[in-house]
Design brief:
Helices cover 7% and strands 48% of the residues. The chain has 5 helices and 43 strands. Strands 17, 21, 22, 23, 24, 25, 26 and 27 form an 8-stranded mixed beta sheet that branches. The radius of gyration is 28 Å and the shape is globular.
């Protein structure tokens, strides 16, 4: 019995003697981008990319884990008990814009040490407010007003306000930049107004500030960080309303009704678009058993007509763009076709080991106005299957692990242009070739302050920067003015140095014209390092000259 107790005691002693896993801590500050003072009671999130060793000589990483902390009176935050690894930092506070941060772009935490993170700079949000009135200048309530960023690739940041009984609206949480305002009001719950024989139906149409029906004629409203633009008035305009009618065709047997949706092209094209915005601006109807349909009360403009059904084990869908004018459109034909299936494989260049941490593959339609795309998990052997895709041209949106980049896409053994492939003809077999030889961009930014980041943006040539594409960023090291951007795919890039909140504002064409002289062009080679020294861009550079 004594021997047994001695054995148990030794076992307990050995177990506790191993100690807790080695951890580190992380501290830093959250500061106001204008005053440079600390922000109290801001919530900070640290997302870690923690190593779990290697397998077959290839590094492996655990799934990212997030932690939160709140800043004190001086704006200081502190995390303790963190597993060693690289952490991305993000902060949020009411009244401020939270900039996007790339995973694994922050400080490295080591066991038994305290890491110092760069200051997280938050800029106050902008606000646009005003009134919505009718043709007589009287207030109109329950009107949705959206501030849509005026630049290419920024529709995903649209913000909404709603007019009250005084016709007043307020749109907050705006990143500094230029916006076009559009007001939309569903008249009479989409009921058809009664008019005399021969008279045209007139309805409130989506109206842009100051009071125009075409987005191209709208006046952009520029708002700065912490600024509120007030006193803007949108006077709603009416437009003739026509009928869109036609037939839905399909090879799938049966005569069940088909649901159709008609949405404005620009509104439907907002990536991550607002559901209420699409609902207020769109129209829906049901096709009869023979496929015929009619949609009344449609104001002139460009639209997306879509429908889909699942019948007898087969899914079919169809999408088309329509231009609606001043006259009824009665001969529309929308063909529904089976959805497609894409089988694929992820391979490493040169027959090497597959990239670690590649959990899934996702694709989206190249036309952002057409809802299409999907995702699939990558199996251990590198294979994946994408089901129920629309018949359109797709582009791969890669989520690559550190040290890798998606080099090319092939269909049926044939390399494709860029990272795109076409499935309008039906099912396809796709191969994604990854390389572990991305490029690196380094350099310095003269006069850089805390929180400045440098972005390597794919160069769009004469058309301006392709902000809608993926871009890589790197933070400027405090006190050294140096930066390093890793895992950059080969190609031509423009280097932009600014605080994160200004980067999005630069996709507005006019803003880009004013600051493009401060961008630096670099060419990134596979496996190489290129150096550039962009000038720092500030909010004053975006002001009208």
């Amino acid at each position: 019995m004594e021997r047994f107790l001695l054995f148990v005691a030794l076992g307990v002693s050995l177990t506790f003697g191993q100690g807790a896993p080695a951890t580190g801590s992380l501290t830093g500050r959250v500061v106001d981008g204008t005053t440079k003072e600390g922000i109290r009671k801001a919530t900070v999130y640290a997302t870690g990319e923690v190593s779990s060793g290697s397998q077959g000589g290839v590094a492996r990483f655990q799934p990212p884990t997030s932690y939160s902390a709140v800043t004190d009176e001086s704006g200081t935050y502190r995390f303790s008990g963190l597993a060693p690894g690289v952490y991305g930092l993000r902060a949020e506070k009411i009244g401020y814009i939270s900039p996007l941060t790339a995973r694994g772009s922050g400080p490295r935490v080591a066991a038994g040490e305290e890491a110092k993170g760069s200051d997280i700079v938050l800029n106050r949000h902008g606000v646009i407010s005003g009134r919505v009135t009718d043709a007589d200048g009287e207030p109109v309530e329950r009107v949705g007003v959206w501030a849509m960023p005026a630049g290419r690739g920024k529709s995903m940041n649209a913000r909404q306000g709603m007019s009250d009984d005084r016709g007043e609206f307020r749109i907050a949480q705006l990143v500094a930049g230029a916006y076009k305002l559009v007001a939309m009001r569903p008249e009479n719950g989409f009921a058809t107004p009664v008019v005399a024989a021969g008279e045209a139906v007139m309805l409130y149409a989506p109206t842009y500030f100051p009071s125009v029906l075409e987005a191209a004629s709208a006046t952009a409203v520029t708002v700065g960080s912490g600024e509120e633009r007030t006193g803007l008035e949108i006077r709603l305009r009416k437009s003739v309303a026509v009928r869109v009618a036609g037939r839905v065709t399909s090879d799938v047997a049966g005569d069940a009704p088909v649901s159709l949706t008609l949405q404005p092209y620009q509104v439907g094209g907002a990536r991550g678009g607002n559901f209420m915005m699409n609902t207020m601006a769109g129209r829906s109807t049901m096709a009869s058993g023979d496929g015929r349909f009619a949609i009344p009360n449609v104001t002139p403009g460009e639209y997306i007509l879509s429908a889909g059904i699942h019948r007898m084990g087969t899914s079919v869908s169809g999408t088309m763009r329509l231009r609606v004018g001043q006259q009824d459109l009665d001969n529309v034909t929308l063909a529904l076709q089976p959805l497609v299936r894409v089988t694929g494989r992820v391979v490493a260049e040169g027959g090497g080991k597959l990239p670690s941490g590649l959990a899934n593959v996702s694709v989206r339609g190249t036309d952002p106005a057409i809802p299409a795309g999907g995702g699939a998990q990558v199996k251990p052997d590198g294979s994946f299957v994408l089901e129920n895709l629309q018949r359109t041209r797709m582009t791969v949106t890669p989520l690559t692990p550190r040290g890798w980049y998606l080099k090319s896409v092939s269909v049926g053994g044939q390399p494709q242009a860029g990272l795109e492939f076409d499935v309008t003809g039906g099912d396809a077999v796709v191969e994604l070739l990854y390389s572990n030889r991305p490029g690196t961009v380094t350099g310095t930014v003269e006069g850089a302050t805390e929180g400045v980041r440098v972005a390597a943006v794919p160069d769009g040539g004469e058309t301006g920067p392709l902000f809608a594409n993926l871009y890589k960023t790197g933070g400027v090291v405090a006190g050294q003015n140096s930066f390093k951007i890793e895992d950059v795919p080969p190609g031509n890039y423009l280097l932009i140095a600014c605080v994160p909140g200004l980067l999005e504002a630069l996709s507005e064409p006019a803003a880009w014209e004013r600051v493009k002289g401060k961008a630096v062009s670099v060419k990134v080679e596979e496996g190489g390092t290129v150096t550039g020294s962009p000038r720092l861009i500030s909010e004053s550079d975006l002001d009208e000259k």
